Model the fold of this input.
Amino acid sequence: MSAWLEWTDTDARSWIAVPGPHDDKYSRGVLGVITGSVEYPGAAILGVEAAHRTGVGMVRYVGPRFVRSLVLARRPEVVTQPGRVQAWLVGSGMDAARRSFVLVGELTRAISSGEPVVVDAAALDLVAAHTGPTIITPHYRELASLLAKREIDVSAADIAADPSGWAVRAAIELDVVVLLKGASTFVADPVGQAIVVRAGTNELATAGTGDVLGGILGSLLATHASELRTDISLLAPLAATAALLHGRAAERASGGGPIAALDVAEALPAAIATLTGRA
Ligand SMILES: NC(=O)C1=CN([C@@H]2O[C@H](COP(=O)(O)OP(=O)(O)OC[C@H]3O[C@@H](n4cnc5c(N)ncnc54)[C@H](O)[C@@H]3O)[C@@H](O)[C@H]2O)[C@@H](O)CC1
Ligand SMILES: Nc1ncnc2c1ncn2[C@@H]1O[C@H](COP(=O)(O)OP(=O)(O)O)[C@@H](O)[C@H]1O
Done:
């Protein structure tokens, strides 16, 4: 039985990298992104927007060609040339049933690159290829189908009834950090770290907010890539920090009213300024 640490603003503060005078775009970290598809291009835009607004040296978007032009139309600062990256975000906004052979190869190469990686949505079934620091970001249905592929008979309803227990079980079973999404977010790693994040608003129950979370987390991994190389235990607090930041940005965007996912991404800079005491 894990003892769950409730993550606070004070905990999260020190996990957000603030650039200094000696930083440049490469020293801050480059996030490689393979997300979006003809079916779900918006997920790529949401993740890229959130990554930029969390603070990162560069976003290198190398997802499907059709999506690149849409991402560039929204964010001209995105680089679409392949090249070195310090972390990856893969899988949001894709349909596993429609992945091409080439795309599966690209996703697998990123997951097995040894760099820190966030594996979301339609790349979850490829997670066994991981070789470096890896976080998966399923919701209940996604975790249920991922575990079913490993012959663990569990439904989304079972996971909803015991999300903390299933987060721990999945982290051990898959040997990765699990960030299990829901009204509360449970982060578990294979060696017993267990963190719950309750920041946010129920208004987050709207399409695309998970894609925004992926971008936030990718950004935090890219900006901590050198520390992660020597200490994989940093993944869980970074994941919890991403969820807390996501929640605080959502509260700010909502102000008590409804939100759309892009509003959450746009509220990130102000949420970070407050959290890091620079507001
Ligand atoms: N703007 C975008 O491009 C967005 C893209 N998204 C992407 O969409 C893909 C699928 O994500 P999901 O979380 O939906 O995947 P899930 O596989 O969890 O959900 C799909 C299932 O939801 C159920 N469902 C569909 N419509 C329903 C309805 N009207 N009422 C009740 N149940 C219904 C069906 O059983 C369906 O098989 C992911 O790749 C995700 O990243 C989502 O994040 C939403 C926003
Ligand atoms: N009722 C809720 N209250 C608070 N947060 C929620 C609620 N429902 C979902 N969330 C959060 O919203 C996000 C939804 O992500 P996800 O299910 O992947 O949606 P999408 O695939 O549409 O992006 C997650 O961060 C999750 O923790």
Summary: Strands lie at 5-6, 30-34, 58-61, 87-90, 117-119, 134-136, 177-180, 185-188, 194-197. The mean pLDDT is 97. Residues 139, 181-183, 185, 200, 202, 204-205, 207-211, 213, 246 surround adenosine-5'-diphosphate (ligand 2) (CB under 6 Å). The first helix runs from residue 9 to 13.
